[in-house]
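Internal tracking record. Fields below are filled automatically when a chain is submitted to the structure queue. Please do not edit lines marked as system-generated. If the sequence contains nonstandard residues, flag them in the REMARKS field before resubmitting.
Queue: standard
Priority: normal
Entity type: single polypeptide chain
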Amino acid sequence: MPTSVMWFRTDLRLLDHPALQAAIASGPDGVVPLFVLDDTFWESGARARQAYVARLLQEFSERIGGLHVVHGDPGVEVARIARSVGATTVHVSADFTPYGAERDFAVEEALASHDITLERTGSPYAVSPGRVVKGDGTGYRVFTPFFRAWQQHGWPGPAEPTAEVSWIRPDGRTHRIPDAAAPDGLELPPVGEEAALERWQDFLDADVADYDTIRDLPGPDRTSRMSVHLACGSIHPRTMLADLAPLRSAGSEAYGRELAFREFYADVLHHRPDSAFGYYNRTFEAMAYDEPGDGLDAWKAGQTGIPIVDAGMRQLLGEGWIHNRVRMIVASFLVKDLHVEWQHGAQHFLDLLVDADLASNQHGWQWVAGSGTDASPYFRVFNPMTQGNKFDPDGQYVRRWVPELADVPARHVHTPWELADPPSGYPAPIVDHAEERREALRRYDAIRP
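SYSTEM-GENERATED OUTPUT FOLLOWS
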């Protein structure tokens, strides 16, 4: 009887998993649950994501009775394992990141030389990147028409529950799952499929109905926190969309739109892989930027003297996560108040975010920097004090993360320097926002066509 290999990557779950179902169908005598420790990830510097994935691997391994973990070049190791068990197929969820697509092509060629097939079934998206295109066959660069086409394209319902799997392990020693330490002071969120499903159900029960009105408010902390589970594949967006569909509320529709944004940025990166680290709009390559220095260090440490910015950066240090509205505020401050090129901030986020997603992170930064798809106009410079007063009016979020301001009245919690006696221990603003806004616009005028 044949066996097959299920090569897990960012899809460590058992439910709604078409690739795993295909592996079971191809391997009635058993399925090898394989995970490859690829140095491209483990030496990438993404410390928070590595620590989270290490715990997720351990949880999933215990759940299924043992992952078969190997370390090395996937182009070598996947073929070696498949040959060792006589498998004729290796099954994966399709990977559309620039590195992932290149890696899978190399593995596919290596397997083909041994008459073994790499079968891609499904992907981490409801609609795989490249499926939604304009009439001329090119990808969208504006979200709203993409969203309409994405909805019209549609997607299948969740896959049927996975049948009981006969897991088999090849002879030979399994590599130890890394014990990756989280950055100092960072508390990791719960890991695994059960944690994802529980968190999702809690959000559906308590908060999704109000999501359209609360999603921009960091103080109440009522967003779903599902981004880490999506990034690591503990839940599939198709499962979430199926749960949202019957609700038909403004909140559920707003949340579905956010899921579509994740798919939009994945599609953009698929069409323009160079935009992962380079400019989508290359006009901005000519922008004058300052060399990273003390300002970048203060921003990373949450010591800029701007309360909403410091609260966001301290939340990143403490949780490996930042509220989405605050992500935009802190990004705008780095690029347009400190005049630091967006890649420096994006890399810092990739290092410390547990929900680090290359497409969403890089293109979110480019949106703020004015150089991305459907980008915020460069002259839209976020005023962090105005943003704080609008979205954290009572200072609940700021006080949670900047305890130096715990006793400052709400009227001044976003402008503590206006007090006759500013709180001790909290820095004065490192820049004057009005002046830096003018400087940002001057630099933009210099590159405008």
